[in-house]
Write a structure and sequence with these properties.
The chain has about 775 residues and is of the alpha+beta class. A seven-stranded mixed sheet has the order 3-5-1-15-12-13-14, with helices on both faces. Strand 12 and strand 13 form a beta hairpin. It is globular and about 80 Å long.
């Protein structure tokens, strides 16, 4: 593969010998951690890159099928009520129309189990899907049209006429939702409330304190690739090509909806043009499958950009109170982070903005609490660093405010409150190099040139510098299983139902497999994103690399065990145990004696085997019971604010990251930068404008919902500690979501340093400055 030649020239010609120990929490670390001169950590271009830029990568809306029909959805225009009449006659008579489906003729379907209600649930909400005349939010699909072309389907749905009866109990304003009362937030089965000592009393007694309110708006998902699926039925089996980040979860959930066996649903998703939490199961895939069953035809459904805003959830709004009390030396006496988020009655995703405050700083007392209120709106869902991205905005702005009030350097204040162990659980940290990240970033960014608020001016431009901490927890979800097939000609295929959404999964996992097996990357095939493969892996929570890695370690251990059995007593490896050998130069080698080795070809030939296949499941993620595990960052930002117009330009950003071992320097840097860019959008422009009179999103397009473009993004510098975490597979923690955390606060703090004006309400627009 030509794409690998330059990278391979920069790394060792032969893979380092590795012991194939299974990953055992609290036990012997994965030997891959120790090696720093092989493929692991190298800067290698993505192996799927040429396929994508040449158009050879087939996305969900590009699979050709004979007799394919195209779907278009009709959306409700009220937030709560019922359909009193729906006239589809004109649509049914329109050119090319094959089917018009409403609640009157839809197949009987069960509601989707919402995400996080069951281990394999993938549904965005549990609203009945076109089963009755009820309307639950403004934008709910109420009719579907199938036609010979997309244009015909779009035209026909516009001909459908609907009348409604608006319900009196609809809730479309936050004020009314709050008046109806709140409920405690629960995230991943755990209450979002924590009290340690008397935080309010200790806040009142502290000599220095801040107590402020911060707000963040709704945000909508806008991945480059629109949400789409191409699907068909073969008898009672459903075949789905989808753009999804949870193939196994989707298959299970669809089976539940249609009342069929999970083995009757096959989902593939080889290429995903961005997900960020939104590419799970929404009503459009279910409706397309129902229409395909009803019409007896294959269906392609691709939401318009407006359609994504109408039925795909995003980040909900937050109202946050952050109060910090400090002693004279800066030590935190009290840390309070509480507030309210909006949800719907039909989903299970509060925005857990208090999570960073649980572990980032030491404090003598804590009061952390997220309350939820219910509104009739599109069900909110995960969006890159849910909780942490907006939670660090409130928390890190408050730390900056406290530092200013105390006349203390904001970095020094943060380091003064660096905890020795997890401040709320008491667990030891698995690995934590936060101080090194701050030290490296401080020097590289030129922090010593920072001046007092409003002091630095260059012509019409006020210039400010500031910083913020970022954090994201380590996760590894259970259910990871992998299959390895080794052939006599020295090739290996690794298969697991994981996902590639643009983060470089296939490249990084090919690197890892090559180094474990002692084979060149060209000899590795990594298969993924297919429910025919083993494993139940979710691409979310920045945990996929760890989940895949743990599964591959387990499969590799089993492979080595089988190879040693096949080698027998006539092999130079005779008598060795699996943890005493590793992969090297296309075979197995004793770790303590490189002279004792045998090639895979030799072992399989003597055993008269052409190939050997093994499958194994990763051990349970018990490491999380023993250690407090987080990725961290120190974000530095420089902004320029025009004193005449109020225009804000971000001129420099540096992210210094502590994420354990970096598997691929090139793809990791891309993930860090991508998260920072998304954070800039959150800080300065992203806002879903919501009409509280009708409960309707008012800016459902990229013309009105602003995201950063090239001219909005400055040079982004990224560095990292690359200190392995001894308690994770391969020593790595997640890099996908840490990049966005802390960015909103870093920008806001820099704006304050430039202007002396504190903005506590995102996005920071010029009307809030002057």
């Amino acid at each position: 593969m030509p794409i690998l030649q330059d990278a391979m020239a920069a790394v060792m010609k032969k893979a380092i010998a590795l012991a194939p120990d299974s990953f055992i929490p609290g036990g012997k670390p994965d030997p891959l951690i120790r090696h720093k001169h092989g493929l692991i950590g190298a800067s290698i271009s993505r192996i799927d890159g040429p396929l994508k830029v040449s158009g050879r990568a087939t996305f969900a809306a590009e699979f050709p099928l004979e007799g394919l029909t195209y779907a278009a959805l009709k959306y409700s225009t009220i937030a709560r009520g019922r359909i009193t009449a729906i006239d589809t006659a004109a649509a049914q008579e329109a050119p090319g129309v094959a089917l018009v489906m409403t609640y009157r003729n839809s197949p009987r379907l069960k509601p989707m189990p919402p995400f996080m209600t069951q281990p394999k649930a993938a549904g965005g909400d549990d609203v009945p899907i076109m089963q009755d005349d009820q309307v639950h939010w403004n934008g709910q699909p109420i009719a579907l049209v199938l036609a010979q072309t997309q244009e015909q389907a779009d035209h026909a749905q516009s001909l459908i006429r609907v009348t409604y009866e608006v319900a009196d109990d609809g809730v479309t304003s936050l004020a009314k939702a709050k008046a109806n009362g709140s409920e405690p937030g629960v995230f991943q089965g755990e209450p979002l409330k924590l009290e340690i000592k008397e935080a309010e009393a200790m806040l009142a007694a502290a000599p220095y304190k801040v107590d402020a309110r911060y707000t963040t708006p709704r945000h909508n998902h806008n991945p480059i690739e629109l949400h789409a699926a191409t699907l068909y039925w073969e008898g009672d089996s459903l075949r789905v090509h989808d753009t999804v980040q949870a193939v196994s979860h989707e298959a299970w959930t669809l089976a539940e909806v249609f009342g069929i066996g999970e083995d009757k649903v096959r989902v593939t998703s080889p290429y995903v043009g961005g997900g960020f939490g939104s590419k799970t199961l929404w009503q459009h895939q279910v409706l397309a499958a129902a229409a395909a069953k009803l019409a007896g035809r294959p269906v392609r459904i691709m939401l318009s950009r407006e359609g994504v805003f109408r039925i795909v959830g995003g980040r909900t709004l937050t109202e946050q109170r952050v109060a910090i009390g400090a002693a004279a030396d800066g030590a935190f006496e009290a840390l309070i982070h509480t507030g309210t988020v909006a949800m719907t009655p039909h989903n299970n995703m509060p925005e857990p903005f208090i999570l960073p405050a649980r572990s980032v700083y030491a404090a003598r007392s804590f009061l952390l609490d997220v309350e939820t209120v219910k509104m009739n709106m599109t069900a909110n869902t995960f969006m890159r660093a849910p909780g942490e991205s907006v939670g660090t905005f409130g928390l890190e702005c408050a730390v900056d405010e406290l530092a200013h009030a105390m006349g203390m350097d904001p970095i020094d204040l943060r380091l003064r409150n660096e905890p020795e162990k997890d401040p709320t659980t008491g667990l030891p940290f698995s690995q934590r190099a936060v101080e090194q990240a701050w030290k490296d970033g401080r020097e590289r960014f030129g922090w010593d040139k920072r001046q007092a608020p409003g002091a630095r001016r260059e012509g019409d431009w006020l210039v400010g510098m500031s910083c913020a901490a970022g954090t994201y927890p380590y996760y590894r979800m259970p259910g990871g299983a992998a299959r390895i097939t080794l052939t006599r000609d020295g090739r290996a295929t690794v298969g697991i139902a994981a996902h590639e959404m643009g983060m470089g999964t296939s490249t990084a996992q090919t690197q890892i497999a090559a180094e474990r097996l002692g084979l060149p990357m060209e000899a590795i095939t990594f298969n993924y994103a297919d429910t025919d493969l083993p494993g139940v892996v979710l691409a979310g929570g920045s945990q996929q690399t760890a989940a895949i890695g743990a599964a591959v370690i387990a499969a590799h251990h089993k492979l080595v065990d089988e190879l040693l059995k096949l080698a027998g007593n006539d092999s130079p490896l005779a008598g060795l145990k699996p943890n005493e050998v590793g992969g090297l130069d296309g075979g197995l080698c004793a770790l303590e004696d490189e002279g004792r080795r045998e090639s895979y070809a030799s072992i399989l030939a003597r055993a008269r085997r052409d190939e050997l296949t093994v499958e194994a499941e990763a051990p349970a993620p018990l490491e999380l019971q023993h250690w407090s595990m987080h990725s961290h960052s120190a974000i530095f930002c420089e902004v320029r604010v025009n004193a005449v117009t109020g225009e804000i330009r971000v001129s420099r950003v540096l992210g210094a990251f502590d994420c354990g071992r970096i598997i691929n320097a090139k793809t990791a840097a891309s993930q860090f930068r991508g998260g920072i860019v998304m954070g800039l959008g959150m800080a300065l422009m992203e806002e879903t404008q919501f009409d509280e009179r009708a409960g309707r999103v008012m800016n459902p397009s990229l013309a009105a919902y602003h995201v950063p473009v090239h001219l909005d993004v400055p040079d982004i510098d990224v560095i990292w500690t690359d200190e392995p975490d001894p308690h994770t597979p391969m020593g790595a923690r997640g890099v996908g979501e840490i990049g966005i955390t802390g960015v909103g606060a870093a920008v806001a703090n820099a704006v304050f340093n430039a202007t002396g004006k504190r903005v506590r309400d995102l996005p920071i627009t010029l009307d809030k400055l002057f």
